[in-house]
Write a structure and sequence with these properties.
Layout: E1 15-19, H1 24-35, E2 39-44, H2 47-59, E3 63-68, H3 74-84, E4 89-92, H4 107-135, E5 139-144, H5 157-177, E6 182-189, H6 198-201, H7 204-213, H8 223-233, E7 244-247
Length: 254
Amino acid sequence: MTLPKTPSFRLDGKRALVAGAGSGIGLACAAALGEAGAEVTLAGRRADVLEAVANDMRVAGMSAQVLPIDVADVAAAKQAITKSGPFDVLVNSAGIARHSAAADTIEDDFDAVADLNIKGAYFLTQAVAKGLLEAGKPGSLINISSQMAHVGGIERAVYCASKHAVEGFTKAMAIEWGKTGIRVNTICPTFILTELSRPTFEQPDKRAWIEDKIKLGRVGEVEDIMGAVAFLASDASALVTGTALMIDGGWTAE
C-alpha cells in the first residue's frame, strides 16, 4: 500500500510579511518563518531595530529585509505593501494594550488601541489579500490575536474588545476569500513573557492570577508561538481557515 505523506512545513520560495517584527512575538514569528525557508520582510516603525533583527537573521542563514511602516497609518501602509508585494504569508503581530478598569477608560486609550489593533490589523490584512487576489495566488494570513479574544479579563475591557473584533473580521474574510485559496486565521496566545509584558509579571498579584489560570502551570514564552505560526503559514494547514489556534496553556478550557 502507499502510505500518506505529511504535507511540508517548509516555506521555500514563499514571501512572508511580519508586522511588529522588532521584538517579542513578532520577532519570534519572523525567525520561525525564516527557519522554514521563507523570504521574510520585517515591518514596523523602528527601522534601526528591524535592521538589527534582519542582520541577525542573515547571519543565521535566513533571508530577511526591512519595510518600515506604521500599521496604524493605513494609507501609507497600504501603499508600501502594494509596492512591495505580493506576499504569500502575512503575520500581523503589531498591537498595543492600554489597561485600566472599565469605569476608568479614557477615550484616547480606546482610540489608540482600536486604531492599531482593529483598524490597522483590518486594512493590513486587506492590503496583503488584495495583492494575492490581483496576482491570482493563494496565501496564508495570520493575525496574532489573544486568549482575551475569547474570555474577559481584569482591567482589559478595551483590549478584549479589540481582539474580539479581530476574531470577527478574520472569520468573515476567511469566508469571502476561501474559494481563492487565501486562508485567514488567528493565533491566540496566553500571557507571553516579553519585555513589553514584564511589568505585569513583576506584580506578584498579577503573576499569581496568571499562573493560577494557566493549567500547565507556567507562563508562555515566545518559542511557544513559533511552531504554530510555521504550521499555519505552510501547506501542513491547507484545510485550516477562519479559526483561532489557542496557545493558552488551558486558560480558556474552563
